Amino acid sequence: MADPPPGRSAASVACDFKESEMVGHRYAIGDKIEIRRSTYQVDSGPYTVVRLLPNDSTDREYRVKHVRDGQERVVAESGIVASALPASSRLFR
Q: According to the model, what pLDDT value does residue 27 have?
């Protein structure tokens, strides 16, 4: 592990890393997700993440697009899960 920057302890650098890790979005643009039906009244099936939305909440938000009908909506990270599509389907985002 590299030495911390001057004036910083290794512990403070480690804290910064953990905080930055927690505030990021779990899913990336192009990822296939499913919306939890108990959270939203929407069509079932896979959605594609088309935009990561900025917010100050710990529950990140995404703009997603339904794979079949093209409907777009905004969903919170707590209301979605990774799609159960086979890995080969995820190669062509």
A: 95
Token digits of residue 2? 């590299």
Count of H-run helices and E-run strands, the chain: 2, 5
Alpha-carbon span 34 to 27, nearest angstrom: 12
Strand order in the sheet with 80-82: 72-76, 61-66, 46-53, 32-35, 80-82
Angle at 11 between CA 9 and CA 17, to 5 degrees: 110
Interatomic CA distance for residues 74 and 65, integer angstroms: 9
Handedness of CA 2, 7, 9, 14 (dihedral sign): negative
- pLDDT tens-digit readout, 17-59: 444 444 689 999 999 999 887 767 777 789 999 999 998 888 9
Half-sphere exposure of 45 (CA within 13 A, CB side): 9
User: Which one, of 43, 86, 88, 89, lies nearest residue 66 by Cα?
Assistant: 43
